[in-house]
Design a protein that fits this description.
140 residues; alpha/beta; Rossmann fold; 5-stranded mixed sheet; 5 helices
């Protein structure tokens, strides 16, 4: 059994001044991305990782919490979301939070495909992303 290095992990439960957020990097990931890609899961051993779902959780409250976290930290931010369009809000929340606080901290953004492959976030929704969403809602 592996020891938990941080608790809690959910964006909505993390205190913006939590000591584990004071490191060099914070990984902000969609719940599903952590389960689909082992590399993101493995980050829990070295980086602060916080997770949330912009579709199933209140997006306004999530954005407010992300703003508080960004305001308290100068850490590099890495954002991982699934390829489905509903996940893209997490990228927008992080960017808007940085903008509102005038933060110039480095950030990297990624999309995790349903296959587990990771690629840079291009700020565009392509046909394969829409099809992944359709498949998810049809149950296949």
């Amino acid at each position: 059994m592996q020891e938990v290095k941080q608790w809690p992990v959910k964006i909505m439960l993390v205190h913006p001044k939590a000591p584990f957020l004071k490191g060099e990097k914070i990984v902000i990931a969609a719940d599903c991305a952590v389960l689909v890609n082992r590399d993101i899961r493995d980050r829990f051993e070295s980086d602060a990782v916080i997770i949330g779902c912009p579709m199933l959780e209140d997006p306004r409250r999530m954005f407010e919490r992300i703003k508080m976290i960004v305001a308290e930290s100068d850490a590099k931010l890495e954002v991982y979301t699934m390829e489905v369009p509903c996940c893209h809000a997490l990228h927008l929340m992080v960017e808007k939070a940085k903008e509102e606080h005038g933060k110039q901290t480095e950030s990297e953004k990624y999309i995790v495909r349903v296959s587990g492959a990771v690629e840079p976030y291009s700020k565009k929704i392509d046909e394969s992303m829409i099809e992944a969403e359709r498949r998810a809602h049809r149950g296949h």
